[in-house]
Each structure stands twice: as C-alpha cells, then as structure tokens.
Amino acid sequence: MNPETFKPEHFLWDFKDKVATVTLNRPARKNPLTFESYAELRDAFRDLATTPEVKIVVITGAGGNFCSGGDVHEIIGPLTKMSTPELLEFTKMTGNLVKAMRACPQPIIAAVEGVCAGAGAILAMSSDLRFGTADSKTAFLFTRVGLAGCDMGACSLLPRIIGHGRAAELLYTGRSLSGEEGLNWGFFNRLCPVGETLAEAQVMAQRLADGPTFAHAMTKAQLHMEWDMPIDAAIDAEAEAQAICMKTRDFTRAYEAFASKQKPVFRGD
User: Fold this and answer.
1) What mean pLDDT comes out for the span 204-218?
2) How is 202-247 classified by DSSP, letter by letter?
3) CA distances (Å), 236 to each of 44, 89, 206, 241, 247, in order?
4) Residue of 52, 54, 42, 40 whose CA lies nearest to 12
5) So what CATH class is 12-209?
6) 118 sits in which H/E element
7) CB 177 within 8 Å of CB 134
8) One-letter-per-residue 3-state SS of 50-110
9) Alpha-carbon separation of residue 190 from 57, 152, 219 (angstroms)
C-alpha cells in the first residue's frame, strides 16, 4: 500500500503527518458495513503491516455516528438465504478483519460518536484506544437479531476490556452502553465534547506518531500475545522484546537527548 495514493472504494482514507484516518462514509444510514467494505477494510489493515510510513491509525464515522453494524438489507437479508458453507465463509471473513486490526503494528484509535452498534461496536472494541462522547451509544446487539454474542471475537476481547460480568451482560442483552458508563467501565479511554472526538483522537494519534513507534508496535504485539501467557512466560517475552528495543536508534536518541537536557526526537527506528 502507498498511503499517499491509496484510494479505497468503500470508505474514506486520509494520510497526513504519519497518521492515517479511516472514515466510514455512509452517513445517511449511520455508516453500515457491506460485504465489500468488510473485505476492503480487512485488506487495508493487512496491508498496513507492510506500510511503515503509517505510524498510527484513527478510525471514525461520518455524519455524527460511528457505525450501525452490518447493513440490514445488503448483509442480513442475503445471509438468511445462504448455505452453511457460505455463512461460514462470511463469518470467517469478518473475523479476519479483527485479526488484521490486532496484527497490524500501528496502534488504532477509534473516534466514536453517536451510534456504535453490532459490527461497529466490534471495530471500536478491536481498536487499541477508544474516544467517545457522553452521547455515544455502543451496543453488541447480536441477540436482537437472533444471533449469539460470540461474534468476531467479542467473547474474548470484550471481557478483557471491561470484565467478564459486564461483558456477559452486554452480550446477552444487546443493550446500549452509554458514554458515561463506557468510561466508568473502561471501554472508553476518554469522553470528548460532541463534534470534537475526531480532533482529540487525532491529537493523541500525532502524539503517538511522534513517539518511539517501533517500541509502540512492540507494546501492541506484547499486549496481544500475553493474553494467554502464564506470567513467567510473559516476563521472559517482555525481556526479549525490551532487549530488542534497546538496540534501536530511538533508545540511543533518548539517552543522548536526556544527557544534553533536550527533548528526544524519535524516528521509529
């Protein structure tokens, strides 16, 4: 992927100062996903693994809403007519989008306003940081359409963010999580004024992009790897990871800047 020339068909892409912004752009219908947008998002996040120019990703929605989930007419309707192998192909494809988001080295910040439902809630959940508003409405509403809450890794990821009991409540009931509740439960890292969430997310993105981005990628990888590691194995893995980071030029730059009483300028190498 060339981030300067990348022109996706099913979402907006902006790249500036090392930060890529992905905008779901069907505002009239609260930015629902289609078969095509799922696949294109999956491919884009996969390509980010080999796009070192992009240091941080922000994902958001146009028109005051984040994402209303899978399009009722373009996805849910057709799914009712598919065979089991076709359905499994679809569910694996959507799961691969989450895998791609977790595997790409760039930290991802979700800027969530308004509706964040179904697969939209999964996109926010799969991000590394989440900024919302008091008016944000996040719902894992799969049970409302007769499906299980175990969709796209929700039963694995969500309990790690907000705790098992709280995740179970949301996944069983499909009820909306308010912005304040989401902040108190740890789903949101920060609540912003309505209309300013993207701007605040981009400020954080720039801060991270100006930091030691090789080390950020290592932190993301270790956070993901250590979910199912015994503590002793995690400590050993972190020892190896930190030793690798100590061989980077950024580590040397930080020491030299400290010694000369200056602020370090990181370059991600």
Assistant:
1) 96
2) HHHHHHHHTS-HHHHHHHHHHHHHGGGS-HHHHHHHHHHHHHHHTT
3) 33, 37, 31, 9, 17
4) 40
5) alpha beta
6) none
7) no
8) CCCCCCEEEEEECCCCCECCECHHHHHHHHCCCCHHHHHHHHHHHHHHHHHHHHCCCCEEE
9) 17, 24, 20
* Strand 190-191 versus strand 129-132 pairing type: parallel
* Token pair belonging to 19: 């930060």
| Dist. CA 51–CA 268, nearest whole Å | 13
Do the Cβ atoms of 75 and 35 come closer than 8 Å?
yes
Q: Tens of pLDDT along 76-133? A: 889 999 999 999 999 999 999 999 999 999 999 999 999 999 999 999 999 999 999 9
Q: What letter does residue 122 receive in the DSSP assignment?
A: H
pTM: 0.95
Residues paired with residue 108 on neighbouring β-strands, in sequence order: 57
Q: Map out the domains of the chain as residue ranges.
A: 12-209, 213-259
Q: What is the CA radius of gyration of the chain?
A: 19
pLDDT digits over 38-56, tens only?
Answer: 999 999 999 999 999 999 9
What is the longest distance spanned by two Cα atoms in the chain?
68
CA dist 237 and 251 (Å) reads: 19
CA angle 55–56–60, rounded 5-degree value: 150
Cα 169 from Cα 68, distance rounded (Å): 20
Q: Which of 23, 18, 9 is nearest to 266 (CA)?
A: 18
